Amino acid sequence: MAGFSPIGNDWDEMLISLRNHRSGIRYLPEWDKYNGLLTKLGAPVENFSLPALYTRKNTRSMGRVSLLATRATELALTDAGLLGDPVVCGGRTGVAYGSSVGSTPAIADFGRMLINRDIGNLNATTYLKMMGHTTTANVAVFFQVRGRIIPAVSACTSGSQGIGFAYEAIKFGLQDVMLAGGAEELCPTMAALFDALYATSTRNGEPHLTPRPFDRGRDGLVIGEGSCTLVLEELGRALDRGARIYAEVTGFSTNADGLHVTQPNSETMQEVMRLALLDAALEASQIAYISGHGTATEQGDITESHATQAVFGANTPVSSLKSYTGHTLGACGALEAMVAIRMMQEGWFHPTLNLDDPDPRCADLDYIMGGGRNIAAEHVISNNFAFGGINTSLIFSRYGS
Fold this sequence. Notes:
The chain is an alpha/beta fold. It has helices at 11-19, 56-59, 64-80, 104-116, 126-130, 134-142, 158-171, 188-196, 235-240, 266-280, 298-312, 322-325, 332-346; strands at 2-4, 26-27, 41-43, 93-98, 149-151, 177-184, 223-224, 226-233, 248-256, 289-291, 317-319, 348-349, 366-367, 373-374, 379-386, 390-397.
């Protein structure tokens, strides 16, 4: 596994941030130029750099979102001991990856063409940077992957669907190895989208105090960026080569509300969690920790919390990584999965930052607050929910549980 986030570009940095309540939220003065944009808050990935092998020739089809995805994948393959291994380009390895959209500067180039009626600076690679499956395609080409390609382009469930679809590809014998995850680059257009829905935080002078998932004083979400890749491998093959196994993917489900594009639905949220438990052959009582979607929006927090309580009751610890990183959209499902797995290994689970006074309209859950919690976990669940009424649940288990 490997990822880039607003709170660190490797697990050691992320863990230090989590333990020290260090938020990645920043006031972005460069957004002051956008008239009418209410929020000026974002969570950028800082100190992101590329080694020399990323030449102009092999990155010309990549915007920032694909660069984030590809570099995370390179580091994940290194971590897995598979970088340069013939299996990667041998047809039995695939890619399941996604983002909400492609690289937005490239999209803007096409927009200027339509507005100005002039192709301007458009070139042969502009579309490759903006296309919806730009991360999937660029990762596949960079590592010469010849197996199954599964674009997971479903907004906030892109990363979690990528992992789930990768799991299914291996489970049903279609592939031996899958490169799975999601990425997103920070863009003011995303902030403007949620501004239009009155869903962004406008605590522009207090970035360290927002977002506040499940808190009575929350005022909306903050947009972030990041990337994360998990290398999934068929267990027998991993054991044969002596691979380091962080966890097993034991359950996955995805479904749709079928009711409204932006309004969440408790019943189908509950159903996706129950289906994941069924897939993992686990009871709800066996889940030791819930990685919540926790966006810090009113309808989202309230609906999610009640769906969670209906399935797990009031005693399973839950927290939200977005309180540290903001909402990284297409990356969040993968980043949150990686952090949940790492915390299962650590035996320590981060709190929800800025959750001081739980909203009484949210369900009565065991919200992790304050200094975090030591938990001996064998199984954890990670939930994500997206526009379009798309829901995902992933269950990760300690190897051998």
